[in-house]
## 1
Amino acid sequence: MTELSFLNSKGRPTRSDEGQGDARFTTSTGHHGLDLEEALIFEIGTTETTGVDVPEVPDVASRLGGLERLEPIDLPGLSEPETVRHFTRLSRKNYAIDMGLFPLGSCTMKHNPRLNEQMARLPGFADIHPLQPTSTVPGALGVMDELAHWLKTLTGMPAVTLAPKAGAHGELCGMMAIRAALEAKGNARSIVLVPESAHGTNPATAAFLGYKVASIPATQDGRVDVAALKDKLSEDVAAVMITNPNTCGLFERDIVEIADAVHAIGGYFYCDGANFNAIVGKVRPGDLGVDAMHINLHKTFSTPHGGGGPGSGPVVFSEALAPFVPRPFVLASEDGLELIEHASEQEADTSFGRMCAFHGQMGMFTRALTYMKSHGADGLAQVAEDAVLNANYILSQLKDDLSAPYAGPCMHEVLFDESFLKGTGVSTLDFAKAMIDEGFHPMTMYFPLVVAGAMLVEPTETESKASLDEFIDALRHLARAAKAGEDRFKGAPYFAPMQRLDETQAARNPVLSYTPPDAAQQAAE
Amino acid sequence: MTELSFLNSKGRPTRSDEGQGDARFTTSTGHHGLDLEEALIFEIGTTETTGVDVPEVPDVASRLGGLERLEPIDLPGLSEPETVRHFTRLSRKNYAIDMGLFPLGSCTMKHNPRLNEQMARLPGFADIHPLQPTSTVPGALGVMDELAHWLKTLTGMPAVTLAPKAGAHGELCGMMAIRAALEAKGNARSIVLVPESAHGTNPATAAFLGYKVASIPATQDGRVDVAALKDKLSEDVAAVMITNPNTCGLFERDIVEIADAVHAIGGYFYCDGANFNAIVGKVRPGDLGVDAMHINLHKTFSTPHGGGGPGSGPVVFSEALAPFVPRPFVLASEDGLELIEHASEQEADTSFGRMCAFHGQMGMFTRALTYMKSHGADGLAQVAEDAVLNANYILSQLKDDLSAPYAGPCMHEVLFDESFLKGTGVSTLDFAKAMIDEGFHPMTMYFPLVVAGAMLVEPTETESKASLDEFIDALRHLARAAKAGEDRFKGAPYFAPMQRLDETQAARNPVLSYTPPDAAQQAAE
Amino acid sequence: MRYLPLTDSDRQSMLSAIGAPLIDDLFSDVPADKLLKEPVDLPHHQAEMLVARDMRRYANQNLGAGDAAFFCGAGAYRHHIPASVDTIIQRGEFLTAYTPYQPEIAQGTLQYLFEFQTQVARLFDMDVANASLYDGSTACLEAILMATRVTKRSKVLLSGGLHPHYRDVVRSMTRFTVETIICNDPVATQDAPGSDTDWLKTTVDEEAACVVVQYPNIFGHIEDFSQLADAVHSTGALLIVVVTEPVALGAIKAPGAMGADVVVGEGQGLSVGLQYGGPYLGLFAARKKFLRQMPGRLCGETVDAEGKRGFVLTLSTREQHIRREKATSNICTNSGLCALAFTAHMALLGEAGLKKLAHYNHSRAVQAAERLAAIDGVTLLNDSFFNEFTLQLAGDAEAIVEHLAQRSILAGVPGARIYPERTQLKDVLIVCVTETVQDEDIDALAQGLKECLA
Amino acid sequence: MRYLPLTDSDRQSMLSAIGAPLIDDLFSDVPADKLLKEPVDLPHHQAEMLVARDMRRYANQNLGAGDAAFFCGAGAYRHHIPASVDTIIQRGEFLTAYTPYQPEIAQGTLQYLFEFQTQVARLFDMDVANASLYDGSTACLEAILMATRVTKRSKVLLSGGLHPHYRDVVRSMTRFTVETIICNDPVATQDAPGSDTDWLKTTVDEEAACVVVQYPNIFGHIEDFSQLADAVHSTGALLIVVVTEPVALGAIKAPGAMGADVVVGEGQGLSVGLQYGGPYLGLFAARKKFLRQMPGRLCGETVDAEGKRGFVLTLSTREQHIRREKATSNICTNSGLCALAFTAHMALLGEAGLKKLAHYNHSRAVQAAERLAAIDGVTLLNDSFFNEFTLQLAGDAEAIVEHLAQRSILAGVPGARIYPERTQLKDVLIVCVTETVQDEDIDALAQGLKECLA
Ligand SMILES: Cc1ncc(COP(=O)(O)O)c(C=O)c1O
Ligand SMILES: Cc1ncc(COP(=O)(O)O)c(C=O)c1O
């Protein structure tokens, strides 16, 4: 450490005079106005401090079987004021939908209505136990049943399970059912076909179940190459996993033909429904030959998943797969709704079993149902139309300045590639980071893998035209700046709380939990 | 407008390359990373847009008496996503307790516990009407009665009214009672004595009631000059209004003597209790001869008052003034609690009447009572002790670098003056603005009026020692920088969302509501 | 204690840094015999969970409007407040900020105050609005005091249709300073249209500082007061219009368009809900010429050192912290957060939403009024009304309300509750029907009244 | 529609900018006969107020734990979660952010994930924790799959004390890929101490990838498994410890200190509450040597271009988005917000608070257990336990639970609910006593049991 002046009194580096241009002098705290630095809990808390008052412990003979934890746990605490401040400060270093356009393709970052949050917090939903007598929770079963009805009606599919905890878990669920169905017919088969544009969870899921993954190429126009797919079909193909609309933001025109071909060899059509937002209320996957499809409630149906979760991935099923749905599920009988948690002793058990400890993401069901009821059948179709309209509007306004590998119309997201940056020295990554300076979250980058330097832009329907226009202006401005050779890309972002982070160092020498400086030093020695 | 490059596509100015040092290039949006500009509702909304769904209006014959509003109201609307984003972005331009130390002397900006917010939102409190039968709201009366009990016990006073809506309203209430009491004795008198260090609401209140205000000077040690006060006492003095601890952060040592002297001439002692946080649980104003005192629930008892309100200013009364308390009030009788809203037909009506439409700030009562129960008698005394300890710690650490006009110990706030800045060219204002750059809200400036360039620092008890130490370091650093002639004060703040604002222009040509640019132009022509 | 960050060892080390052996050494200015030796006689600190339990117990004793068929108004209105409004006011940066005295780091607050002022001015059709007062009643008082300052007169005329609590606030708080307050008698019927207005017209004279009317009035009547405005202005007095239910202004003419000089109102219905009476939101707007006599804070537009648009509190020379005993009012803390809720809700509504909401309220009220008026023993006293009307019952209204409350029907506000001294109002019931009232609620009330009056 | 900003005129002008006459022209890739001509058969959009009413109706049909004497546990625990925790997770910047793939503008999320990983690792006494999985059961499954990868073996031994739902998840989800899953029988009594452990010790062999135990186990028993760990390790297998109630670890020895190789758990009790089973919070921690075989996201420390400390998602070459079919797991979305709640709550507790909370839970449970065991027809089956214990009743436990539920006593989880196939568990009741249980609740349960068993 040579330049001690860059460290504040806590040893935290303050911004240097070089580096970012905004420091005309060094603040002593390392804070800059409302941009406040924040240390780790482990640096500011103490193990004596607590922000929770617990009543006095009654004096009774312990029955811990001699297993008392006597060693320090080394978990520092904070008082409530410090806690609120710590997390408030941290939060302010994040970008979020509430702050601006979040055009992360494939992620459907739409507005999260706050009514949904209020409803999910009603004690009748939030404070009920998964194993209390079902006779005491008819309303919970009612929500599950009504949500199931909406999902089945919107997809035109006869069965649904609510158990899966996210999209990938839904994929697992759908593919488990497919494998169970095949095993029931006596042959699990060994191959799953997955387009090269697929999301990573698709091949990972197939592999999780022991299937070999065979990749299908894309056509020039960004769709599944049907001929290539048919070529790979055989009696050993268990299923195809196709995303529709696909990850290039395009509707698979030949989807019915694909479904028929797969069915013809006795395989199943798993549809990745992550992009359902583009077609909800407009097209029913059940009309397209789908056998199983997961729906990300945290995308299409607006349940918040800040920082990476939680999600919820219900799966709809065709008649063929319905017998294999996992437990638990809600059954409507004459006596009202029933929660089926275990194999029945009377009937043959075809369910593939259980996927998680309880009944799925109830907290997401209440939010999603609230959202669905708010929009209604009419509003949901409007959602799809506006999502698609917004994406096409961006495409129409930016196709001359950026480069779109596939002609429109697109669905709810629009794909650009890096060719407009050719010769500028600016990469897709640089371009995306420069968007941060302009006040936007970058789009999805380098995915899908079928185009070079992909930029996948999904505005969602909850952006206004003014917001899109501002975004379009900014991207056009950046594209021109890149072409003009302006020097604002390589080091971007300049105006974010941090400059580019060294990901290589992070991976090479993984530091995954806090170690106090002296301990770290000792370890290094 | 010559330099159009500083305007973005909406005509909003972006930061210039000159000015603040942080702009190494101009962004096209005017945003800078997470620092997002936000236009006015009137610039982004339209009168057709709405973020609220209202059910279809039933078709009935209108009975509006021919008074339909036919003219446009010109109130633009926003969809819900736009609304949430608008206010989220605005909020991020604020400093707040949740973000850092807020040492605004006299304001007691302490942590606002979130339990209080939860409790105030229980439908049993939030969704009851002030005029629904009192038989249906025993819990509301219960809260009021228990709160009254806590306030009376903490102050050692026999009576309390909860009606006043803030501190100044409480002053009005107390002084009304005093005037009513004097009138009842046949002579309202004409003078109220107020120390020169008093908060502006004190003289304003006295004037509101038609009293002449006579000012009492302070002594060298920052207290009321008792001799001068006694000099001014006469049969025409209705009351003295004294803040204790006073606005210099000092306890009035001679308070009992003052009370006695006022009582001796038949006047009353009104105590401004804004600074009760320093002594809650430690000293009872009732033991000091106080006749009336308001308590700012939004200071001492932590009810939030973001952006300037709401407050709540219950007033405690001595036996002498108790008969004059305003209506409504809660009366405990054999049949339980009763809400007295009107003069009784049986008894003589001594109440001075009604101060506000309903029963006071119920939403603040639930919060304050929640807070009191959380701390308890023991915790509240600890509040006072920690508040005083924190202030004295700051005094002890900064008295050499800054200048403290009065020797300690101080109470819950510490007063500095501008003398340490003498010859530096840096004013109290400049110094305070430089604190913003360091990540702090400035202290109260130029108040009280008894010292030149006052800086009144009130840390409150909800700051940790680490937080105080960081603050102390920063102030020491700034004081030394000022003395060293560093050029970072006159233009401060440099790192805030805005540079210094032109208050003169605002007052000279008041623009108090939005006028669209062409209308404004027309008006100017 | 969870809210206190200092540990015992912090306290020790700080005391020694200060040089004070004991904490009570810092309280040495307090007369020794006055310093308490032990905690006062109140319960000690409690876990959050247990405090919540105590408070929930109180809350559960109350009959919340959501659990009842609910028809109360009379100065406090129950509207549906969108979930996002509460989310917004709970943002820490808004909730835990102070009065925006440091504009460089308070633009969030300042901009919404500017937006609020604009919305209020437009809603009322006035030139300028302030940044809020405590509630409608204190706004009414402040308007009257402003009128006395502006006109230098000391006589005030109050309409009989003014909310009696507002009337009481005015009477109480001016008793030592305003010479004459004359208040007309309340008349629940609209049979004699304009009789109150006629009285005001004929009574106003060159000594009057102002005339105060309410619109819609306490009984729900709405009346054009353009002619009254002329009469008032011809004497040099000011016309003050009180609006306790601003939603009405989405459907009926703005007071400004009818000649009001000052419009004050109560904004709770659009912002923070019922809350048993407070905190509420005082709205205050006036013609520009009275600007420098207005009470309360004002937020104004300006530019920063770089020329960037920004907002500041302005014209503070009217206020107590600058002007002390010469201030236009003693108000300091106002209703900032409630104003934020109002601004956010109004932004959500927009003109289209506000108008639809207002018309929906009105139509539902008309439906209910017709339904109830058809009951034997019930007479509707209004010709015109917005969402609130008055019924004459063939029986003691307070007793009926009390009886129905036991069946979770909160039928409205009986005359005796707010006019205990007026026996002729014993049998009237003021009924309010907002968008929150459902068909089943109207059924319940109709059925209940039928039974009570049978 | 309140969530849709586009106005009809926006839509028109955008369509013409695109050059599409009709919106359905943008859907031209959809086979014409598949495009719906009108909305599906579901209700149309509704006002917020009416949606809220519908949802409240559902909520009101459920008996919330707060309105009952509540004793349910068995994998989901009811703890008091401080109000500030919910405030924190509702910050828009946390709630509406995405996975922190852009670290320059996601340090808020990244730093709390780093803090979360540190807290979990310290609580379990493990080297590294990941950034969360779906829930405890899927964490358990992932741990087993990791063990099969690490050991390249395909036999798994499950303790009879493992939550039967976890057992079922493991069985179902490995049925196509793991050769042998052997599960010991559940034994509710602790009479034969260590019998389950003994079985595991003797059954584990060189073919076993791992042994899975739960601590405290499903019946509440707590047992030292240090010796088991030795036995397991001597065969080259991994010891996986499942903790469904992490509060216990404030009172009892850390699994890491007893030789666990992987510790997984369920974090809902300290973060997001009961929620009828989800979303919950999967905790996953392991010894450092397994780092590159771990499932899920990891957040690591690094520096930015200026040398300032910051955090990023790291070691993503394990993950599906990079490694596709070779990934260590298919997980993508995890339980980020729940992890935030956990981190905030753990920060509030700190070591002092956690220990006190744990000891308070334990003492209350002991009090309750002794009280209940004194009832005729009730036998306590545990020697040692933390906050949950198992009672043998002289009667059908499920029927008794059902009966008491009608009196708002949620007495616990009856054996038959989770072990319907085991008639010998028909009469056992698993009772959990956390800090939320009051004396009056215990009284109610004792009284209820007494009456049912009389
Ligand atoms: C196309 C696609 N498929 C699957 C997934 C996985 O869904 P989840 O993250 O909910 O597991 C995603 C989400 O990122 C996706 O975009
Ligand atoms: C000493 C003093 N007195 C009175 C007041 C007025 O209280 P309020 O703002 O609640 O009306 C204040 C508040 O700023 C104050 O500091």
## 2
Amino acid sequence: MDTREMIARRVALELRDRSLVNLGIGLPTLVARFVPPGLRVAFQSENGIIGFGARPPEGMEDPNLTDAGGGFITADPGAASFDSAMSFALIRGGHLDMTVLGGLQVDEAGRLANWLVPGKLVPGMGGAMDLVTGARRVVVAMQHAARGESKIVRRLTLPPTSARRIDLVVTDLAVIEPRPEGLLLRERAPGVTVEAVLAATEATLIVPGEVPEMPLARPDRPLA
Amino acid sequence: MDTREMIARRVALELRDRSLVNLGIGLPTLVARFVPPGLRVAFQSENGIIGFGARPPEGMEDPNLTDAGGGFITADPGAASFDSAMSFALIRGGHLDMTVLGGLQVDEAGRLANWLVPGKLVPGMGGAMDLVTGARRVVVAMQHAARGESKIVRRLTLPPTSARRIDLVVTDLAVIEPRPEGLLLRERAPGVTVEAVLAATEATLIVPGEVPEMPLARPDRPLA
Amino acid sequence: MRKGITAAEAAALIPDGASLMIGGFVGVGSPERIIDALVARGARGLTVIANDTARPGIGIGKLVEAGCVARAIVSHIGTNPVTQQKMLAGEMAVELVPQGTLAERIRAGGAGLGGVLTPTGLGTLAAEGKPVIEVDGRPFLLERPLRAGFALLHAQEADHEFNLTYRLTATNFNPVMAMAADCVIAEAVEIVPVGVIPPDAVRTPGILVHHLLERAH
Amino acid sequence: MRKGITAAEAAALIPDGASLMIGGFVGVGSPERIIDALVARGARGLTVIANDTARPGIGIGKLVEAGCVARAIVSHIGTNPVTQQKMLAGEMAVELVPQGTLAERIRAGGAGLGGVLTPTGLGTLAAEGKPVIEVDGRPFLLERPLRAGFALLHAQEADHEFNLTYRLTATNFNPVMAMAADCVIAEAVEIVPVGVIPPDAVRTPGILVHHLLERAH
């Protein structure tokens, strides 16, 4: 299992039955493949649909049915489509139970930076600022470090995406929960020690007495 | 011809081809009967439809298709229905070319009062404040006086519906255009002298050299 | 596939003193079965947010007559003399809001916006006590968002995932209210299998609807 | 019954330097025929308000490559490296707006509202230079309404009164833009007789649409 799949599997355990979830482009998209069996999760794509499914077989793509990255998708039975004003009314209005987004940095205040690297190309924030501000729960799925530098930092050096404190970070090394008092180390990746997590982390982590290993499937439904 | 029909016929001459028009309850509703032939006017009802037609024959009423007063209507080919947010986005956003409303008072500043008589029953403003504020052109259709008192007053004694100056008043005695410099007497009703209009009006009117008689049909399309 | 509830079960969910948004325009597009059940259970002290209080014997008018309503936030009460009498007798408080402002305040409540900046009501009694904000030199009234504990909706079609459609002028306030309440309860003229309503025809995604009344017997 | 125009006629209506709202999301739901005609007539100095600048060779990407665009007000340019190069080379100005704020600013422009009060962007670069308004103790950014000289729309069906429908995720910004421009020009996949689109299926009433492209030959 590569670390991307591991992160996606762990994030998938955060999904709740009958919830509305938005997955960002890239790693977060993988989460849809690991929805625990029996859970009915409705996925929203901010370009205007709830209830979309996987990419259709070749030759069955519909030019009017894509995800926010422009990739072809399908519509599940019971899907609903709508315009951008409605889509962001859902996001900003607290109707989105969870969003999973990639990250560049998360700091000790639980703030996320994921849209801009000053001095480099400027892609733009797209829907990220609305998603982080409006979703009931924000989960960041990312590698713990990039080019040897920790992405869990004392204080953001990149521009924040929102002033809001995010709810959970899942990396290839750990699960971290930002709290008012700081970053709580909740879990460590399989085979990774607490010491290894701390060594790879710039920010100060609150380390409880026991830090269990990250589960990758629900105990009642073992990994396929 | 009774004075209500006369007023409605004169107001109908203000209709323009391909315009979107909202008619208030009561006298203004009559205007729809006198659309000059050849004009294509789209009528909006603020409860959510553009392109409605007259009351259907008995037994063909649809409980889901009514005007803002709750009366049954029909849908013309090409009609469009929508929710209240969209309906008032049309009204407030300047998409409504004209509204015709009843009035209790119009004053020398061109302000309209038509929703509340203090000390009496309080019906509420409904959509009137939005219509008067948002429509490109506001035409008031009303009797010149009520119980012997002029409804064209120096200064409103009733609460205004909007701070906006309305565009035209059509009464059983005259057509009056509120302008920045005051109320201009544009036309007098058939058989009514300028002196009679002035005597029935509390407000000061600007009287030009010639005050023609109110036309009740377009010259090229005589009254049927 | 989700299971519907009865009208009586719906009414039992709504405690006395609750705030309710109720769809409808002079009774057209109001959830009559839920309203009847509220009257039957003798609900008291309700705050009703709606376009109007309909007419005696119709829609919200039934709640007013039965003494269920303590407060109404509406754009007019002109079609219901019972509401007017109760207001004058001090049995019911009535707060009047311009109709477009009411729609937009509810939309703001459901869309996570901090308020509405509208020119409607400036220079009138509707502006009393409200801040005026200038944007590019033009004044606008700042009107606050509206939310409620419950939204009671009338839909045309529902499927078993509670996706909703509306019909003609029975649409009115129903779609905006579906976004602005903690608990959304809908009744539909027809209940159809999942997949029968095309995605583009859905006006309220089922994920927003907490309860749907089962078919009437 | 109203008469359509050709794509070249549409492009001729739009002067150099005009501001355009253009529907589409990474090219999905963009009016390709009008865009091609604008490229063909060599339009210059356009301000484009849209979700994004699509990809090279697709939708708004074609306008960017052809040098028609002086300024873009968009939520991202991440899918179009040509836009990024032109921005860095100083050939094109790019103003970034959070996607939900962009949708709501356009809606406000079309709905006669004075602005948008949103929590999105507070405490970020998107808040720079913008007023913060407190409502009930919570801060919101005041974002200004957006309007344009022209809206260029992609619809699924149009009838000969120019009523429009949209399809699935090709809907995106098209309906809000239809409300927020002085001149609205639409192209549709299919043109159907008046009365064929049911009133409830119409998403943009024809009265809002000034021009419709005639059928492609």
